[in-house]
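Mods, move this if it's the wrong board.
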Amino acid sequence: MNDTDIKLTAKDFSSGLDVKWCPGCGDYSILAQVQKTFAELIGVKKENIVWVSGIGCSSRFPYYMGTYGFHGIHGRAPVLATGVKVANPNLSVWVATGDGDLMAIGGNHFIHACRRNNDIKIVMFNNKIYGLTKGQYSPTSEKGKVTKSSPYGTPDYAFNPISLAIGSGATLVARSLDRDIKHLQLILKKLAEHKGLAFLEVYQNCVIFNDGAFDHLVDKETKDDNVLVLEHKKPLIFGKNKNKGIILDGLNPKIVDLSEGKYSINDVWVHDENDPNPTRAFLLSTFTDREGFPTPIGIFRRELKPTFVEEVYNQINEIKTKKGTGDLKKTLFSGNIWKVE
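Not the wrong board. Structure tokens:
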């Protein structure tokens, strides 16, 4: 029997350790969907998967996965993951992080990971709050948010992680919801299949410090009017009766009522996740900052281009071809050297 004959289950991707998140935390759903999705991946050996994390509630993730893992320091997970991937390009390298971990102290590392297009997958759990340190506002908390560290409301403007990822050059950028399990599984598979820097923002409920932040996106009565599901080559329509559409007036997106007769589905903006021009993907990312607009979920943008690891090893091979294989001892004991007696 070879590796491809072994049928894995979600249980095979559980470490068996007690999960120490608050009861009802959205992290449980993300963990469950990752384990289920990984069991269905084709061509990826369990022993070739590595999870890397920083600091925060989300960063407990490697402990609960039945794979290799590394619990790093605050904000540095993208750097550690880059090192792992460069050292062993055959590994499937994933990062579990939170909005505080990645968007604050880890912000600089994140934008450069995107810029390099290293072949790693970054899953950011966004609850718009600092959970592990007990409820301070985070870089994604909305302006005016009252928290323990902003009793009169935060004066900050929030980071838009999707906009940041697109602007920094990530080659797959997506969003999903912790309670939309089928959608989350679908997007996780898309990340696994992608070659390059893949970024997934998951809106995740913190039941203790920011409970209900995303209720309007997951509750049956409200989600249809507040969520825009992005599907490749499909028109941007939403609403309980699918009667609302998004059109582009130049570069200005507008919501139109398709039931009034003035506009038809033929006028609606058709989503192209492979659009080589990132402008439309960036416009979609701004919907969360526009009053009255629905929140997009799905793949905003996908691009294929050489990865950081490919470029590094191509460079090494080119130099070897020109200069031959290096000799460490010769390098250390050549040139301007001296001996200390």
